[in-house]
Queue: 3 jobs
Job 1
Amino acid sequence: MGYYYDLHLHSCLSPCGDMDMTPNNLVNMAKLLGLDVIALTDHNTCLNCEAAMAVGEEVGVLVIPGMELTTAEDIHAVCLFPALENALAFSEHVDKNRIHVRNKAEIYGRQVIMDKEDNEIGEINDLLLPASFIGIGEAYRTAKEFGGICYPAHIDRDSLSILSVLGEIDEYCGFKTAELADISKLPELRAQHPILNSMNIITCSDAHYLENMRDAENTLDLPELSREAVIEYLDT
């Protein structure tokens, strides 16, 4: 059965995420747009996933805990996990293995942790945008060690993507899936990068603002609507 998805969304915890992207707002917007499953993938942290998952349970949207990891090469990769505990353990690992510099909220925006009622319960003071010490060649295997998966984000973009930085997707990386921002670019990219012919291809919004979230258009063909089924699909 096909389930409508968007597996790349940011909350107000991402420094470039709008403050209107609260757990309640983004999950309820997903519901209004007709999405069945979403993933919260803030930059280099999973600390707003618990609230978003709780809201999802209340309104009937499956929320997958995740992260948009910035690798050592400044490449963005989406990491998804089957359970909150896996995501939080990975988040702690990344926090110990990333560059720490003070956030300038007046420039980059605040990095706010919320509960399921959208109450502020914390704020991350170190900027979440800088690179981690995890290389793109080890990102997939590192996520797997925590029970999750990893794949390169928005490969069709001119910056912060695996193709813009390295020029190719090496089989060594182990990725089974690749994400495009603009699915219309897929035929051209497949001609240039044959490895994409053997990979799952998805397209997601990477929304940092509510108005950038997309209507339900693209589906995943899953045997059931569960986090495990989504991850198995993307890792096959």
Note: The first strand starts at residue 2 and ends at 9.
Job 2
Amino acid sequence: MENVSQTQQCPYVAKCGACHIGEKSYEEELAEKREYVVRHIGKYCSQIHDVAGMYYPYHYRNKVHAVFGKIKDEVVAGTYAEGTHTIIPVSGCFIEDTQASAIIQTVTQLIKSFKLWVYNEDTGRGLMRHILVRKGASTKQIMVVLVTASAEFPHKNHFVAELRRRHSEITTIVQNINDKQTTMVLGDREKTLFGPGFIEDVLMGLRFRISPSSFYQVNTAQTQVLYKKAIQAAALTGKEHVIDAYCGIGTIGMCMSAKAGRVTGIELNQQAVKDAKANAKRNNIKNMRFIAADATEYMTQMSQNGERADVIVMDPPRSGSTEAFVRAAASLKPSRIVYVSCEPETLGRDLAWFRREGYHAREAWPVDMFAFTECVETIVLLSHKSPDSVINVTVEFGEGEGKVPLDAIAERAKKYLPKPKITYKMIQEYIEKKYGFKVHTAYIAEVKRSLGLTMYDAPNAVEELKHPRKRPPKEKVEAITEALKYFEVI
């Protein structure tokens, strides 16, 4: 890895919140990321390697998004200030692809010159909402997605022609229609304005089709590092049945297919499955099939049908997996599970669930996919711990010498009955009755998080994670802690 101690200075640091360039050296970032991983999964996995850093940790994002807005009647494109919907105009971001950044600036100028209305979140009026630029690192193909609030696009043909004239490197332009008042970037409808409506990229020697909404890792160079380590952890011999859960457009599963007997990719997103099938066909992969289904439900059905899997590879979203998924995965009795996570906190929670199912984390490899941000990707290898030996014990029930009384067993069993589930509502009601004030579920979740407890049962807790965390006031921390003790949660 190149010595990048002299970090470039970003003019937007501490404003946009997207990264932390300029605050510390890259080496310090990597060290802190390893500490972050250890803090959340160290109690479940003792062998955690150093973070695999980038050779050049700048301009690595092959997917760049900007929101349009107006500041003093001037059309701008940028990102939201951290924790707000205040737009920070950004030009020449140090972590975004340079061509993508230039295209966004051009589109911003064209919006002004073509006198197109910029969408206003407060009033719900206007046309131009967002722009998304995706680039194939190997193919150099570029997709521009213009997100509009309606299907009507005045001067559309002239707009596209002028954009292509200024940027001949663009290979496709898509209009995405998002007419809902939502924080989601993309809508459900699309119109291809130029080109095929998708781009392609080459990864691990395979060619992949990428649509506007397809999931594809934003850091191509580090994705190769990530996938090579995942394949190594899977330890395939050519005979295994591999399940690629949350498979997206099928990248991990297809990269493993050459070393596996067969691969089943499971993905809920219909468009992603369509792309995955096209990807398998264009790469002439015949030992992989794709299922458009909920992975938890499908694997549960597989288990009920008596089917098994040798290896499961999973790459869930930032919110992690679910207890139901973990049970479904364990029911297929795989010898190895390769977990690819982008959030150590939810990873730690999920490893605890896997441990209850008999699967233990053996080794972890953090990979820096998002330089100068708080995010870090981690691969964890889990395997089932089989008993070293078996002891057969014969117990005779009844009355008399050497026998175990049934009444005594029943009495003893009462001690092991599961405790009733303590809900957030119960904690809120207890605090309001005893202390006379209310507490938000996010505050309860924050206190539970600080105590190392699971906090995702809160109805709003996952949603709250999308916003900056706010430490509860001292008196509420004390009240919540006392309530947790009262209910014997701690």
Note: The longest strand covers residues 63-71.
Job 3
Amino acid sequence: MRLRRVILLLGLLAAPAAVAPWFTSLHWTVDLLACFPVQAGAWCLGCAVLALLCGGRLSFLLLAGFGLAAAAAVVPDWLQPPPAGPTAAPTVRVLALNLLRGNEAASAAALATIAANDPDVLFCSEVTPEWAAQLAAALDQLPHRRVHADPGYFGVALYSRWPLADDAVLPLPFHWTPAVRATVSTPHGPLGVLGVHPPRPGSRDQCLARDEGLAAFAQAIAPLPPHRVVLGDHNATPWNRGFRAMLAATGLRQATTGRWQPTWPSELPWGLRIPIDHVLVSDTLGVADCTVGASFGSDHLPIAATLRWLAE
């Protein structure tokens, strides 16, 4: 009986995070908890199995219910990956890196990651002047670029194999968290790109600022051509209220191909990370693959996607 009670109490510790994705509008703290339904759901289900093995049927039912609530919030997206598109369709390779301010000594590892992915379009966030100088000297294969370096955490840079048109650095919506927008003149036609790094959540005001940044995506991509991609460190998981509202407003979808692909923090084991770095695409783009790479010294893992050109 004591063991069953201990297991029940341990399982209930994760219950708020397990159901949080369903109640994000209640309070900003609930929205923060909604970042962890995968971990919370797995914990609840594990405790449910232990409770059943100890003869605690009611505890099993209660904890399994919380675990299933978390699964219901997460699994449907994994079961509906974006269309891959015909294999003969032209492709564009994109890569997003949060370089990490203060991680400039790891430039060799970052450049090796870029070389291994061989992107046609690269977006980097937390680009300090030192990072910008090191990248400028090494990315000959990506000669077209728009760089806004900053000594803080919100420098951004876009690099492309092909020419950029209408490239601009714009507030999103705060001047200290700019995004970079451009139309890439690919051999297949124009590709609209928005590289983003909205504010990180934390306090009530920080969560509000993050959501305002996400809400600004719709207006920011409005001038772009129909083939569009938004990539970068969104500081939001797919279960946060602001992220879901942004997807609804923009008509974009995640490029993840039906797998759990957490990116932050890189120093934690795979199962304890959360997915806050994203590649989002319009319905005119198929997704051949989307992968999270190995650590290069940043607290974020790189995310790359091969996109297929579909008819408008």
Note: Residues 57-78 form the longest helix (22 residues).
